[in-house]
Write a structure and sequence with these properties.
41% of the residues lie in helices and 15% in strands. The chain is α/β, with parallel strands linked by helices and 595 residues long. It binds one DNA strand of 29 nucleotides through helix 2, helix 4, helix 7, helix 9 and helix 14.
DNA sequence: GCCGTTTTCGGCCCGACTGTTTTCAGTCG
C-alpha cells in the first residue's frame, strides 16, 4: 500500500502534467500544496483516510481527498490515468531541463511533436526549434546547453551541502573585505541546511552594486558570467556550481536576505499572512497597502524597486523584526519549509531551544585504524579533545563487515587494552563501543555477553541493501527490539547522489525502537545525513532520543558535526532530545547497553 | 483545486532577468 510520500509524488505528477496542459496555475499549485500537506501528515495515512480526516488538512479539500484515497487504495486515480494516457512519458523528463518550462514544452510538442529529450535535441541540432513562434536562435542554444546539464546531472546529481558550504565560505571571505560590500551573507537552501543544493545564493548590502558586481565577476574560480543586471549577477564556477549575488542598499538587506533564504513554500505562506494584515511582502520589504488605492496594479520598473506608490514601506532591520511585524515568532532558517513552522510560530509552540553545534559535548561513532579508520585511537582522542569535546566513542566495525576490517573478539579485546592505555594519557573520556552489523536476520553481530561489556552500541546495516520492504522491515524491527540500548546507525543507508535509501516501513522500525530501548542516529557524513529530517520528526514524536554523530574515519571528519546539527535542526530537534548534548556521565549512563 | 468575522464566488505572492516581442511571455526562485 503506497505510503504518504508515494501518494504525494503522484499528486505532483498530476500537477506537472496539468501544467503542461496549460491548466489554471492555481489549480496546479493546489496539487503541489496538497502533496506538501500530505508529507507533513503526522498520523498514519490509512488511518487518516479511514477516519475521514483528510480534509482537515490545510490545502486538502473534497476533490483532493478523493484522489488521495484512490491513490492510497489502488496506486492510481482516474485523472492520473487520463493524464498519463494523453501525454508521452518523456514529458516529465523534459520539465527537468533548465530553461524549459511547461509553456515551451507544450509549444514544441504542438509545433514539432517533440515528446522526449532525444526528440528535442535532434530538433535543436536541426535548427527547427528556432522556426517555432516565440523561439529564436539563442533559445535553441540555451536548450541544448540545458540538455547537456540535464544529462551531466545523470542521476539528478546535486551539490552536497558540505561542498556548497565550503565554496560559500571561500566566496564570503573573498567578498566581505571589498570596500563596496557593507555586508555579505549566505542565503538559499544552503543556509537552510538542505542536504544538497542546486546553486548558491549570496546577498550583499552595498551602495555601489556595480563595483561589487564587477569584483564578484572577477572571482578567481569563476568560469562564466551567466547573467548581469543592476541588482543581480550570476556566475558559473569551474566546478559547474552556479552562484547568484543579489545586491541592495543596506536598509533593504534584511528583507532581501530573508526572501532569498526561502523556502518558496514558506514565503508563499508569509505573503498570505502579510495580505491578511494589510501588507504586501516582497524582497523589497514590507509595505502597508493603502486600502483606498488597493485596486491600483503595481507597475514594475525594469531593474529597480517596483512602484508601490499606493503603499508605505515599513522599515525592517532584521529577520526577527520581519516575523514580529507579521505576528510570528522568529523561525530559524532550517525550519522554513511550510511543514508546520508557520502555525507553530503563530501559536508560540515553535521550539526555542533547537540543538546548536555548541551544545554537543561528545563525538559519537568514530572509527580508527583498528577497522577502516585512518587515525589511531590516540590521534582520534586528541583531535576530539582539541575540539573541546568531553567524550568520544570508539566504535569500530564488527566482524561481519569484513570489507571494512571488522574486529573479531580477540582483536576487540586488544583494542580495549589500547583504549585503556590511551585513557591514562588524555583528559577526554573514552567510551568503548562497536558499530555492530545488523545481520540479514536482524541479529546483531556480537553475542550478548560481549554487548553487555561495551559502553555503547551503534547498530547499522552494511549488507543486503536490496531486500524487499517486508524483509527489510522485519530485519530492522528485530534488530531494534533486542533488549539492549542501541543507536540505530545511518538509518536508511542512503548515499546522496549514489544510493537510494533502502525500502522499509520506517514508522514500524521507529515504533520498535521506542518500545525497546534505543536512540536514532543523525549521521553527519556529508553523503549520508541519515536519518533525514522527516524521520527525525517521526522519531521525536515517539519519544526516541537522538544522537548526532560524525561517523568519522579520520580526525578531519570530526568537522562533520556541523552537518549532523543542521540536519537535526531541520528535524526540529531540541537540545534536550539529543543524548550527546548531555554531560559525559549522563550520556554514558543513558547509552549503556545493559541495565 | 482550495478557501472564507468583509466572501460559497472570486480571489489565490511577487519580482528579476532573458529573449523575443515592440509591450510582453516564459522561466526561475
Amino acid at each position: 500500500m503506497p505510503d504518504k510520500f508515494t501518494v504525494a509524488r503522484a499528486l505532483r505528477e498530476i500537477g506537472a502534467l496539468l501544467e503542461v496542459e496549460g491548466e489554471n496555475p492555481f489549480k496546479v499549485r493546489a496539487y503541489e500544496n496538497g502533496a506538501r500537506a500530505l508529507e507533513g501528515l503526522a498520523d498514519d495515512l490509512g488511518a487518516t483516510i479511514a477516519a475521514g480526516k483528510l480534509t482537515e488538512l490545510n490545502g486538502i479539500g473534497e476533490a483532493l481527498a478523493k484522489k488521495i484515497a484512490d491513490l492510497h487504495a489502488t496506486g492510481s486515480t482516474p485523472l492520473l490515468e487520463r493524464l498519463r494516457a494523453s501525454h508521452p512519458p518523456g514529458i516529465l523528463k523534459l520539465l527537468q531541463i533548465p530553461e524549459l518550462g511547461p509553456k515551451k514544452i507544450a509549444a514544441l510538442h504542438a509545433a514539432l511533436g517533440i515528446a522526449t529529450v532525444a526528440d528535442l535535441e535532434t530538433a535543436c541540432l536541426g535548427g527547427r526549434v528556432r522556426g517555432v513562434k516565440g523561439f529564436g536562435g539563442k533559445t535553441e542554444q540555451k536548450i541544448l546547453e540545458g540538455i547537456r546539464r540535464f544529462r551531466s546531472r545523470a542521476i539528478d546529481r546535486r551539490t552536497l551541502l558540505a561542498d556548497a558550504l565550503a565554496v560559500a565560505d571561500d566566496l564570503l571571505a573573498y567578498l566581505r573585505p571589498f570596500p563596496a560590500a557593507e555586508r555579505v551573507e549566505l542565503a538559499g537552501s544552503a543556509r537552510r541546511g538542505r542536504e544538497t543544493v542546486n546553486d548558491l545564493d549570496l546577498v550583499a548590502a552595498s551602495r555601489d552594486p556595480a563595483a561589487l558586481a564587477a569584483h564578484f565577476a572577477a572571482y578567481p574560480s569563476a568560469d562564466e558570467v551567466l547573467a548581469r543586471g543592476p541588482t543581480k549577477t550570476t556566475l558559473r564556477l569551474a566546478t559547474g556550481l552556479q552562484v547568484d549575488l543579489r545586491m541592495v542598499p543596506p536598509e533593504d538587506f534584511a528583507t532581501l536576505h530573508h526572501h532569498l533564504t526561502g523556502s518558496k513554500a514558506h514565503h508563499v505562506r508569509l505573503r498570505g499572512i502579510a495580505r491578511e494584515l494589510g501588507y504586501t511582502l516582497s524582497e523589497w520589504g514590507l509595505h502597508r497597502l493603502d486600502p483606498a488605492r488597493e485596486a491600483t496594479p503595481d507597475v514594475p520598473l525594469t531593474g529597480g524597486e517596483p512602484a508601490l506608490d499606493h503603499a508605505r514601506k515599513v522599515p525592517i532591520e532584521s529577520e526577527e523584526a520581519l516575523y514580529a511585524a507579521l505576528g510570528l515568532r522568529f523561525v530559524p532558517p532550517e525550519l522554513r519549509e511550510d511543514q508546520g513552522e508557520i502555525e507553530a510560530a503563530r501559536d508560540g509552540s515553535l521550539p526555542g531551544d533547537l540543538v546548536r553545534p555548541e551544545d554537543i559535548r561528545g563525538f559519537v561513532h568514530c572509527h580508527t585504524v583498528w577497522s577502516d579508520g585512518r587515525a589511531t585511537v590516540e590521534e582520534m582522542a586528541r583531535a576530539a579533545e582539541a575540539r573541546g569535546a568531553e567524550f568520544v566513542t570508539i566504535t569500530d566495525h564488527s566482524r561481519a563487515a569484513g570489507y571494512a576490517g571488522g574486529l573479531d573478539l580477540d582483536r576487540l579485546r586488544r583494542q580495549w587494552e589500547e583504549i585503556d592505555r590511551v585513557q591514562e594519557k588524555v583528559k577526554i573520556r573514552l567510551l568503548k563501543g562497536t558499530e555492530a552489523d545488523i545481520l540479514e536476520d536482524g541479529a546483531l553481530d556480537w553475542p550478548d555477553e560481549v554487548i553487555e561489556r561495551l559502553d555503547v552500541v551503534v547498530a547499522s546495516v552494511h549488507s543486503r541493501f536490496r531486500m524487499d520492504e517486508d524483509q527489510m522491515t522485519r530485519r530492522l524491527v528485530r534488530a531494534m527490539s533486542v533488549p539492549f540500548f542501541k543507536i540505530w546507525g545511518h538509518g536508511l543507508g542512503r548515499l546522496l547522489n549514489e544510493r537510494e535509501p533502502y525500502a522499509c516501513r520506517v514508522e514500524e522500525v521507529l515504533d520498535a525502537l521506542a518500545a525497546s530501548r534505543g536512540a536514532a542516529e543523525v549521521n553527519g557524513d556529508p553523503q549520508r545525513l541519515d536519518l533525514e529530517p522527516r524521520w527525525i520528526r517521526a522519531a521525536r514524536s515517539r519519544g526516541v532520543p537522538l544522537v548526532l554523530s560524525v561517523d568519522a574515519h579520520s580526525t578531519g571528519a570530526l568537522g562533520y558535526l556541523r552537518f549532523a546539527v543542521a540536519t537535526a535542526r531541520r528535524g526540529w530537534a531540541r537540545r534536550g532530545e539529543v543524548l550527546n548534548a548531555h554531560p559525559a556521565e549522563v550520556f554514558a549512563q543513558a547509552v549503556r547497553p545493559a541495565g
